[in-house]
């Protein structure tokens, strides 16, 4: 009989450790050997001695962390190919989260575990789609693991954005989004919607867009946000500007013509949260699976046991029990780059109660 995964995968302070393979998956600190699922900073930590990941993830780590801190030794592994480490077979398959994101498939002595990292099931023109893999244990995130989170199609949200641009031609539209993944997806979705004008970028967004284009992801005309020609003037009326979510409260934004503030995030489903932040145009665009997609994915991979991390573990584990699937909370440290705050659950509950 194959060994149960909890005999060879352990949760240590540094993260999830594969004991026979002698490596960590997405460790939270520098370790001797790491397999990294994708380039977001809560999964791709600096100062690893040796790092295995997709070529795209390794390039993202180098761009964000620098040559000296992105892993002293880097081992690229393309999707669908496998290597063995001390008898443990490692395969990376697409996760659909951001460019290069991967699920880590581990096989040892007849037992198979899929560590999904972060993933989504909605189509995304900037990364490979999620590939379900049958397994004995599926390790899933739970960022949006509450029934209230049901993400609309991204194209529907782009239609809302473009309708607002047409309605307020005298105003700029400042869209807060994360520099890795969300920014490039929004650009690609706008292009799919027929928007051919230049899209303006805060300086923090430019380097990742350039990296995506180096990997063959065309994004069209992108320009830096210009400075006003004269003191007191504003710029970019009628244009779309993509910037970090914090930019809306930064003096930098004063150069924009009476900006309509928007944020693209799955958390914008919580109306109270959008209102509290003063977001005029909340765009529900997420790079994570929503509640129905979490449940559908778990059913699709057919794992009798699911380990849950990074989010609302209790709700998902309860729902799985109703379906005859054993759930376990891993309680790994770390949080997603896509802004998680302690008040989200309270806001969701208040909204559900009609507050």
UniProtKB/TrEMBL annotation:
Domain of life: Bacteria
Record flagged with keyword Hydrolase: yes
Record-level Gene Ontology MF annotations: exonuclease activity; ligase activity
Enzyme class: hydrolase
Residue spans crossing the bilayer: none
Coiled-coil annotated residue ranges, if any: none
Keywords: Exonuclease, Hydrolase, Ligase, Nuclease
EC number from the UniProt entry: 3.1.-.-
NCBIfam families: Xnuc_lig_assoc
PANTHER family assigned to the protein according to its UniProt record, in alphabetical order: BLL1145 PROTEIN (PTHR11203:SF49), CLEAVAGE AND POLYADENYLATION SPECIFICITY FACTOR FAMILY MEMBER (PTHR11203)
Name of the protein in its database record: Ligase-associated DNA damage response exonuclease
């Amino acid at each position: 009989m194959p060994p149960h995964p909890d005999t060879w995968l352990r949760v240590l302070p540094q993260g999830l450790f594969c004991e026979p393979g002698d490596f960590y998956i997405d460790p939270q600190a520098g370790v001797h050997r790491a397999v990294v699922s994708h380039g977001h900073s809560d999964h791709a930590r600096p100062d690893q001695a040796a790092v295995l990941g997709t070529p795209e993830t390794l390039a993202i780590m180098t761009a964000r962390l620098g040559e000296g801190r992105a892993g002293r030794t880097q081992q690229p592994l393309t999707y669908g190919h496998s290597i063995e480490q001390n008898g443990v077979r490692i395969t990376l398959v697409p996760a659909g989260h951001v460019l290069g994101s991967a699920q880590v498939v581990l096989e040892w002595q007849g037992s198979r575990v899929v560590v999904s990292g972060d993933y989504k099931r909605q189509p995304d023109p900037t990364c490979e789609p999620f590939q379900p893999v049958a397994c004995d244990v599926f390790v899933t995130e739970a960022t949006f693991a509450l029934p209230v989170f049901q993400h609309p199609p991204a194209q529907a949200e782009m239609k809302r954005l473009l309708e607002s641009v047409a309605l307020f031609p005298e105003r700029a539209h400042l869209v807060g989004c994360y520099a890795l993944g969300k920014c490039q997806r929004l650009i690609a979705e706008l292009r799919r919607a027929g928007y051919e004008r230049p899209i303006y970028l805060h300086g923090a967004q430019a380097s990742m867009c350039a990296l995506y284009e180096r990997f063959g992801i065309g994004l069209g005309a992108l320009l830096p946000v210009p400075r006003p020609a004269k003191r007191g003037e504003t710029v970019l009326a009628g244009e779309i500007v993509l910037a970090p979510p914090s930019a809306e409260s930064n003096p930098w934004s004063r150069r924009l013509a009476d900006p309509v503030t928007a944020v693209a995030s799955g958390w914008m489903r919580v109306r109270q949260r959008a209102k509290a932040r003063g977001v005029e145009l909340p765009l529900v665009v997420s790079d994570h699976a929503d509640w129905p997609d979490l449940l559908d994915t778990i059913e699709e991979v057919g794992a009798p046991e699911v380990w849950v991390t990074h989010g609302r573990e209790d709700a998902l584990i309860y729902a799985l029990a109703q379906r005859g699937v054993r759930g376990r909370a891993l309680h790994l440290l770390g949080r997603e780059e896509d802004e998680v705050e302690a008040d989200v659950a309270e806001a969701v509950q208040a909204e559900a109660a009609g507050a």
